[in-house]
Design a protein that fits this description.
Blueprint (H helix, E strand, L loop, with lengths): L4 H17 L2 E10 L4 E12 L6 E2 L1 H10 L3 H18 L8 E5 L14 H8 L7 E5 L7 H14 L2 E7 L7 H6 L3 E4 L1 H4 L6 H17 L2 E4 L5 H9 L4 E2 L8 E2 L9 H40 L7 H11 L3 E7 L10 E2 L8 H4 L13 H7 L4 E3 L3 E2 L6 E10 L5 E8 L2
Parallel strand pairs: 2-4, 4-5, 5-6, 6-7, 7-8, 8-9
Antiparallel strand pairs: 1-2, 1-10, 2-3, 11-12, 11-16, 13-15, 14-15, 15-16
Helix pairs in contact: 2-3, 3-4, 9-10
């Protein structure tokens, strides 16, 4: 919405009164750890108060207005001061909960680095910096050197850093390199309906896996349903935040015990789902291993000259197998890739093609690991370049009827 000049003047006057009277209130939204059965933190969310009407002014109106009138630094500092003051008076401080504090990251371009305002405000309210996670969105900063200085200096004070809105807008993996966050908050755009969207699930899973590798905790933002909560947990989320648990509320309305029933419910459902998934995975792995042993047994009765025909026969017996092929000990494929490509449309058939007899597979993991001496190799699920579907590859050395050694490879549907 575009304001007229008169409206802008009136709004600017309200902002002046708001800053003068410190008319900002702080709401808090809980951040939940299901595995720990507790509220691990609260995000502080600021609201302006209209000095004339007492109406609430939302941040999406307040902060752009402050930016237009070059008072963004003053507003951001006031919001942070109020957040510290309010948190200091709340029971949350004594629950060893983390205060998630939003920083309007664009103000770093205004030369605020080194002012000491943030640490002084924190200590003034008796809050340990180690219990504060500064939420930043580095895409709003142009001076990346100043951002790096700000992060390094505040990490020395003990502050934690949370990278906000990951997966939305301009977020790139280099943001993680720049910030080296303690916490990665995955944006609502990836979490919404994640239980129904395979691509969102895989992206979330990759981000969660990356977080574990670099030492970052994962928060799934915008959880609104039970299914979203369970899916995010199964994909690697450490903490959950969203309306499903609680909307942002004034400090006087923070009642952790009111969340206990939902925490218990999600914990119970997650345990049930996870156990079922583990049992199902184990059952499928057992079935695949049994089938693979049967394949090896049958092929050990066959000479190399009959491999191709025997693979076709075995494929017909085991529909869960996607492809079968055999390598010599040098890693060269000595059979065709036997399987079905009838699920591919004409365009996919150009992108995904199975390897043919004579293809050198010596640099593939399923060949290298067996050649390195492992008895049997089982891959993680991956996208097959033969058909564009998820598969799991099994490989193992066997001897044919003539006593010669080969490597059998089988791609199973996971």
């Amino acid at each position: 919405m575009t304001l007229s000049n008169d409206a802008k003047c009136a709004a600017s006057d309200k902002l002046s009164c708001l800053l003068l009277n410190r008319s900002v209130t702080t709401y808090f939204q809980p951040i939940i750890s299901i595995r720990q059965h507790t509220v691990t933190g609260y995000e502080a969310l600021s609201r302006g108060i209209d000095a004339y009407t007492g109406a609430t002014i939302m941040p999406n109106i307040l902060f752009p207005l402050a930016a237009e009138s070059s008072r963004l630094v003053a507003l951001d500092r006031l919001c942070r001061e109020k957040a510290f003051e309010t948190f200091n008076m709340s029971a949350a401080k004594h629950e060893r909960a983390i205060l998630f504090l939003n920083l309007e990251t664009s103000i770093i371009d205004s030369g605020v680095v080194g002012s000491g305002h943030l640490i002084n405000s924190c200590l003034k309210n008796g809050i340990n910096p180690a219990s504060v996670a500064i939420e930043i969105n580095e895409s709003k900063v142009h001076d990346l050197k100043a951002l790096e200085t700000f992060i390094q200096s505040h990490k020395q004070y003990g502050f934690l850093f949370a990278l906000d809105d990951v997966g939305n807008g301009h977020s790139n993996l280099d943001r993680i390199l720049q910030v080296k966050p303690d916490i990665i908050k995955i944006d609502r755009c990836l979490v919404s309906n994640i239980n129904q969207d395979y691509y969102k699930q895989e992206i979330f899973k990759c981000l969660a896996h990356l977080g574990k590798k670099v030492g970052s905790q994962i928060v799934a933002e915008g959880i609104e349903t039970e299914d979203e909560a369970l899916t995010a947990l199964q994909l690697g989320a450490d903490m959950l935040q969203g309306y499903y648990f609680a909307k942002p509320v004034p400090v006087t309305d923070i009642l952790p015990q009111s969340l206990e029933s939902k925490i218990r419910l999600i914990a119970s459902l997650f345990k049930t789902c996870r156990l079922a998934a583990i049992k199902n995975q184990f059952q499928k792995k057992t079935q695949s291993s049994s089938t693979f042993l049967h394949l090896l047994e049958e092929l050990s009765k066959t000479t190399a000259s009959r491999f191709d025909g025997r693979l076709y026969e075995l494929m017909a017996e085991h529909p869960r197998i996607q492809y079968l092929y055999i390598l010599n000990m040098a890693g060269v494929q000595i059979t065709d890739t036997v399987g079905s490509s009838n699920t591919l449309n004409e365009y996919a058939a150009v992108l995904y093609q199975s390897d043919q007899k004579g293809t050198d597979q010596s640099l593939k993991d399923y060949c290298l690991i067996i050649q390195a001496g492992m008895d049997q190799y089982i891959s993680e699920p991956y996208m097959s370049m033969a058909n564009g579907r998820l598969c799991v590859t099994y490989s193992k050395i066997f001897r044919d009827a003539a006593g010669n050694s080969y490597i059998l490879c089988a791609d199973f549907d996971p």
